[in-house]
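Page header: ASSEMBLY MODEL / two components / 392 residues total.
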Amino acid sequence: MAKATPTRPLRILGIDPGSVVCGFGVIDVNGTSNQLVEYGVIELKRRTDSFPQRLNEVFLRLRAVIERTQPDVCALETVFHGKNVLTIVRLAHARGAAMLACMQNGLEPVEYTPMQVKRSVTGRGAASKEQVRHMVQAILGITEDHRYLDATDALAVALCHALHGGAPPPIKTKAQRKGKRAAWAEFIEQHPEKIR
Amino acid sequence: MAKATPTRPLRILGIDPGSVVCGFGVIDVNGTSNQLVEYGVIELKRRTDSFPQRLNEVFLRLRAVIERTQPDVCALETVFHGKNVLTIVRLAHARGAAMLACMQNGLEPVEYTPMQVKRSVTGRGAASKEQVRHMVQAILGITEDHRYLDATDALAVALCHALHGGAPPPIKTKAQRKGKRAAWAEFIEQHPEKIR
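Prediction written out in full:
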């Protein structure tokens, strides 16, 4: 496991965004000791709510969490591979809402890929969600099993940020790692109008 | 062109969301007469801003537009086909921010597909952006060419909502039209946890 290098106590909010269940976890980091503050999920399963209403609820309830726990920094998981487009689109909306909840409270979220999160917590980028939960529980001394894996996932994101020393990480995409495709990915990002 | 059937003056805000340029257009609709109130774009091209900062700016500036123009209803374009995944993800974030700007002002956005918008304004679902601009200019008596097509696109969304009588439209996805795939698309939407 990587060593944590924060020099002062740091309160980190980790978010595992979703449009159905959105996990959040808050930890206090002091040197190499991590302490659980709070964790849970925002459930949005009510079918009576429209999609914009659900987004609004993600925003309002995350904002409430931030106001209650007053984190110093906020970390989000990027969740865009291996899912179908419909899911990706819904998730991206929810991530937008989560990002705004942070920004509206003066927190600029840092992002980690699922692989970075898993590797930080379990030492293996392809670890299962159950393995992540197991390690999160071990690290933070949690004894109960939360009903949703999203809650421990969010804690894993917070732990990942702690283990990165609380500094914004360089996210390497597949394209960036593959060198040649990097320029193209960057070009697309900077000139989306050219590929319409 | 479909007949408009609103019975009282209605102020409609149309939004063409984007993470680089976000168009907005406000019109007043009274019976079959449509009058331009305001239109323009939110430019977000500054490379110095991070993505969350740009999202926040979409949110803040759209909220300012809503507070200034006080629309009765808000219409958004769904923009998710024929683009690559990176673009879709960015757009979906921006749409989430736009939706929240509406929701935070008590407006629940209604959604139209690009095809519905184009068909409403030009009579043809596959019309070009230039053709849409031409028709929007003709309908609203606009003489100047705006620098961005996104501005007239946003007005087209507002006009589309006006021509639908100001009522929330039934959005038909490809899957829904194809019948058999409808059940599956709906199932995925309602049970995203099953396909993880």
